[in-house]
Design brief:
two-stranded antiparallel sheet, rod-shaped, alpha+beta, about 180 residues
Length: about 180
C-alpha cells in the first residue's frame, strides 16, 4: 500500500527511500495508536455510561427511600393524632353503624357523641383495624395527611347550604334516633 504522493516525490527526487520508509512506518504506528485510542475511548464511554446508569439507579433508590420515610413519618403523625385526640367511649350504650369498605361496622357511642358525629364535630378514625372517635381538628389533620384513615367524617358543603335555605321543611327537625 504505497501512497501515490510518496511515489511521485520519490521519482522526482524530493525525498529519499529512507524518508519514504520512515513515513510509512510512522503511518502504521499512527494507525495502531488510533485503534488503541478508539478502544480506550470506547472503554471510557462505556465506563461513563455505567457510572451514569449507576447514578440514576442510586437516585431512584434514594427517592424511593425518602418516599418510604415520608410515608412512615405520616403514619406516625396519624397514630399520634389519633392517640392524643381520641374520645372516650367507655360505657357507651348507642350502637353507631357506618360503612367501612363493603361492610357495615358498629361502634358504641354516647348520645352526645352520636349528635356530634352527625354534625361533623367528631369523626371516626381507623388505626390497625380499630375504630376511634376523634375531634374535628384532628380529623382535618388526618385528612390532610391520608384520608384513608378516616371511616366517617361528616362535613357540610357549600352547595348543601344553598339548598337548605330553599327547603320548605327546614323548620322541622328530624330526630337523630329515627329508625326507618
Amino acid at each position: 500500500m504505497s501512497n501515490p504522493f510518496q511515489e511521485q516525490f520519490l521519482k522526482s527526487g524530493l525525498v529519499s527511500d529512507q524518508q519514504v520508509k520512515k513515513a510509512r512506518t510512522e503511518q502504521r504506528k499512527d494507525k495502531r495508536r488510533r485503534g488503541q485510542t478508539t478502544e480506550a475511548e470506547e472503554a471510557r464511554r462505556a465506563a461513563q455510561q455505567a457510572a451514569a446508569l449507576k447514578a440514576e439507579q442510586d437516585r431512584q433508590r434514594e427517592q424511593q427511600r425518602q418516599a418510604e420515610a415520608r410515608k412512615k413519618a405520616q403514619r406516625a403523625e396519624i397514630k399520634q393524632l389519633i392517640n392524643t385526640h381520641r374520645q372516650d367511649t367507655k360505657d357507651a350504650e348507642i350502637a353507631y353503624n357506618f360503612a367501612w369498605g363493603d361492610k357495615v361496622k358498629q361502634l358504641k357511642v354516647h348520645r352526645a357523641q352520636q349528635r356530634q358525629l352527625a354534625s361533623g364535630a367528631l369523626a371516626i378514625a381507623v388505626w390497625d383495624g380499630a375504630f376511634f372517635l376523634v375531634n374535628r381538628e384532628a380529623a382535618e389533620k388526618i385528612a390532610q395527611r391520608d384520608p384513608s384513615y378516616l371511616a366517617v367524617f361528616n362535613q357540610k358543603e357549600a352547595s348543601t347550604a344553598a339548598t337548605d335555605s330553599d327547603d320548605p321543611y327546614a323548620d322541622f327537625q328530624v330526630p337523630d334516633d329515627l329508625i326507618w
